[in-house]
Write the structure tokens for this entry.
Amino acid sequence: MARTRHVVVGGGTAGLNAVTTIRQYDRGQSEIYWVSNEEPYARMVLPYYLKGSISETHCYTARPSRLMELGVEPFFGHRAVKLDTQANVLTLDDETEMTYDDILIATGSSAVRAPVPGADSEGVHSFWTLEQAKGVIRSVSEGSHVVMVGAGFIAFTILNSIIARGAKLTVVEIAPQILPRMIDQQGAALVERWLVDRGVDIRTSAQLSNISDSDGQKRLSFQDGEDLLADCVIMATGIRTNLGWLEGSGVEINQGILVDDHLRSNVPNVYAAGDVAEGRDLITGQAAVHAIEPTAMEHGRVAGANMAGQPQAYRGSLLMNIVEVLDLEIASFGAWNAEGAEVFSAVHEDRPAYRKLVWDGDRMIGAMILGRANDVWATNDVGMLKGLVQSGTPMGDWKGYLKNHLFEVKRAYMASGTTARLLPVTVQGRASVPASEITV
Ligand SMILES: Cc1cc2nc3c(=O)[nH]c(=O)nc-3n(C[C@H](O)[C@H](O)[C@H](O)COP(=O)(O)OP(=O)(O)OC[C@H]3O[C@@H](n4cnc5c(N)ncnc54)[C@H](O)[C@@H]3O)c2cc1C
């Protein structure tokens, strides 16, 4: 009997987890063809590469020896250009045609630059791929002035690294506040003050209108306000899903590929995972794109199990963003900005700390937390607030307690039995297997 042929497109977190999970279940009984235009690596570690705390080698996630162990046929350095879902054929950029029994689309996203003249000129960078990270590393050095356009989550993941390289940093943001999709205005004001006190220049409500060359530097002009001169410009102005190549395939796309709770698209043998998938949001139950690492990992594992013939339903992904800048920890979870929801919030009097808890009845559906990264008290509470939102624990009287004691999460967390609710919950309904034990 012919062996089942799986094709996985995309060498990021979602693709890697799908490949490994297929092998976890079938131990080599199927063929796996893994296509990616880059050699697999984790984007999430690029900030550490920029900082110099890890080498390029540490970014890669599936070297040739590991692919041998997994019995995978790699097609790296190749781009998928067409999908024929009637004939079950994938076409690559060198015209290779690949048939499949099922296929996973995990092609992730790409950085998008602000549409201003000069945005694509030399000296203006994105920071999304390993190649782009190398470009930034070459351009940011001791004493150079870096202007970061965009103050969203991705921009914030690299702030520490730019400063650690000895550069002077200015952040410009079109919105009236920094981190507009991650924290509220009050939190943003606290973070902004923290950064300014530590030497970072910040300009909000700044609409960039042009980038030009000026004596070996870049000149940034704005609709209002003075020009800025930079040695290096990094555009962190958003991302777009890599789905253009699916045009005409019949795969249904909204913000991302619409998937059911088995990560299947409208075409039954086409799965999608990670940044490109629009799947169930754990809190709202609605379809959403969560372009974050934990979702890519969970999607990849669930899709991989289903492709391996182990039916598994996914509970949904929790929107979460956690980032630490200059020793300030910033995190938000779930429906932290749900309109019309009941909210408890407080700023701590004697430490830089802010909390916001968002409720639906006696269940916490979202949370936001800011605090010192080296403060165990804040770090523990990040985990506990995430647990409370993720578990949906009915808090009963502990809700009232939290209203009056926003900085005493531990008692409510322990007493509400949240740990006991969370412990049995696993993505795949069973304990995970160490990657080193997964071979053919
Ligand atoms: C600097 C940085 C820091 C980050 N930090 C965090 C963090 O702290 N926490 C967090 O949750 N998330 C973070 N993220 C986001 C996280 O990395 C992404 O959500 C995650 O990588 C998504 O995984 P994925 O597998 O869906 O896609 P990707 O990792 O984007 O992988 C997709 C792969 O598909 C390939 N590909 C694309 N198109 C094609 C095609 N047509 N044919 C073949 N191959 C193709 C791409 O080259 C890529 O290798 C960060 C991202 C960056 C850039």
About this structure: The first strand starts at residue 5 and ends at 9. Residues 376-391 form the longest helix (16 residues). The CA atoms of residues 373 and 379 lie 6 Å apart.
